What does this fold into?
Amino acid sequence: MTFPAGTDAVVHHDATVRGFASDNYAGVHPEVLAAIALANGGHQIAYGEDQYTEHLQSVFKRHFGDRAEAYPVFNGTGANVVSLQALLPRWGAVIAAQSAHINVDECGAPEKVAGIKLHLVATPDGKLTPELIDQQAYGWDDEHRAAPLAVSLTQSTELGTLYTVDEVKAICDHAHERGMLVHMDGARLANAAASLGRPFREFTTDAGVDVVSFGGTKNGLLFGEVVLVLNPERVRNIKYLRKMSMQLASKMRFVSVQFEALLTGDLWLRNAGHANAMAKRLETAVRGIEGITVVRPVQANAVFAVLPREVSERLQKRYRFYFWNEQTGEVRWMASYDTTEADIDAFAAAIAEEMAR
Ligand SMILES: Cc1ncc(COP(=O)(O)O)c(C=O)c1O
It folds into this structure.
């Protein structure tokens, strides 16, 4: 099939095919695409001095408070690497959960690009606690150990769990009392806000988080994340670090306008709330299938389950999804903003069918 007019591009994919591998398999929300078209035309100053990026500041301030500063970047790994560099001196280290994306899924970018040591903690559910942080919070005065000067937590976590407002606050207080700053990997911050039913600022700015990697891609954007500084006294020089880390977009207006589309009205909440609801629907459906165990609380848009390996392998021929743990046979199923009830019902029926074979 070819596009109707004005382009030689060709449609190469079947848009009816759905998967559960990741929430970034989905396309771009139509309202975001329309916003990109709106920002097109004419010339705008490059590298972030455009009117969309300027306006974006007030959009983020409305959600996160008057001191918030938004620095759009290309991707989540970049947002994390830029944020962490701003928190740490050359000899600094960050305390994080072993399951954190910065540890597991960034090809060592924090270590290699930024030279940052990660002090890791095993957690049962992807969540740090003050007690777990204390396993690594020592040795500030010891030149033989990279100094733990930051804590990084992910909200919602890589394991589909959530920190409550009080839990974030307790971690921030604990970290600050020990001279450590707090980074939040918010690739799925909107899913967390939707699930908690709380405004963003209650579990970020007001809880004491210093800098957030604010996600957009997994919630309907074409691409783009934001390094969101909440404590500008302590988190400085992002503009230099962003460029040095190859995260400075020259045509930034097209990243910024996407966030404007997401955050001005309730698109962020509609998308994230829907993805969460679809994960719940899948959880309910598979809990009714004998032989399958949902192994983690479903608090955002991910379902983790254990089922016989041969069943998963047969299912993977019909739907894309990943093994989370090859040893235990645990799989991860992600719902997206555009996952439909019919998608879930068809997938659950396929699971039941393969289990019965
Ligand atoms: C928790 C978390 N942080 C960050 C990211 C950002 O990744 P990327 O660099 O692919 O945008 C992801 C994407 O999978 C993620 O799950």
